[in-house]
Amino acid sequence: MIAWREGHVTALGRSWPGARELTARVDDADLRVLAYPQLVGEPRVGDRILLNVNAQAMGLGTGGYALAVALPDRLPQDPPPGPGHLVKARYTPLQPIVLGADEQDSAHHDLMKDADSLDGMPVVSADLHSAVPAICAAIRHDRPATRIAYVMSDGGALPLWFSRTVAGLREAEWLCGSVTVGQAFGGDLEAVTVHTGLLAAKLILGAEVAIVSQGPGNLGTGTKWGFSGVACGEAVNAAGVLGGRAIGVLRVSEADARDRHRGLSHHSLTAYGRVALAPAELALPDEPGAFWDGVRAQAATLDGRHTLRTVPCTGLDEALAASPVALSTMGRGLKEDRAGFLAAACAGRLAVTTAA
Questions:
Q1: pLDDT > 70: what percent of the chain?
Q2: Is the entire prediction scored with pTM above 0.85?
Q3: Fewer CB in a 10 Å sphere around the end CB: N or C, the chain?
Q4: pLDDT at 266
Q5: Is 273 helix (H, G, I), strand (E, B) or coil?
């Protein structure tokens, strides 16, 4: 299940909050490695390092790193004693213990224990992590002072630290904070469920809009139900039961080589058509042309359970171009797959448009 290697650190690369790139020499080859210093300690040149090289063995696209498991000759000090008993990535060798915003030892527990409503706060759910900056771009374009929180579910990367996108959005002050839920960890706040994550985003971070998506590393099997993006339908349900305004990003592509994802992805049809039992508003760009006519025809099957909202696209290309982080989905940028980013941006625009 794990391809193990041992090597030595030969160079340190760039870093961002929670993560450090480095190069390790393994079996006469140089490997690109990612370490999470809060889990394994801060690497130094010359350190012996244990690695998980599954990504290289499988040719995985997201990141493509060997992952640092331990610096066995220089273990980090034990963390100082303190509150917190939430265990994330449970019963794995690198399970961290964190303080949850919703647990009894938290300073926020009194605020959270009886919390039960989002009071109409817009909650934008997305299948792919790559939608997050596009959603933010539209919100910031239309209403620059909006406080946006990111709630990261556990369908992709578990450490939020993996995401350079979130690091860049935080640095640009496009996000007011992040909450990691389920088995995910590393956010500004930790929470047990999407429900308490959304409540924490509103009540603790002061968010006016929350975006819910998995972290980088979408998992799909080419089957109707076997993909991690079903969680965006579950996010709609969470928003609905808490009295939020659920808004869904439609996963759209004009460049994906796979028929099941070209036009309106089957992921959206399943997640919103079968998983999301609470009603949502689904954003459709008002773009002309045969491609968008086809998307609208596919989306029409979701009408009734949900409300399809046609969203004007004026100014959104400029908003997307102004993103402080690179826009990339499945290796395709804005020029290669504009439709996907435009659909996500329309959901962001809808979130700061008064509900009909």
A1: 96
A2: yes
A3: N
A4: 83
A5: helix
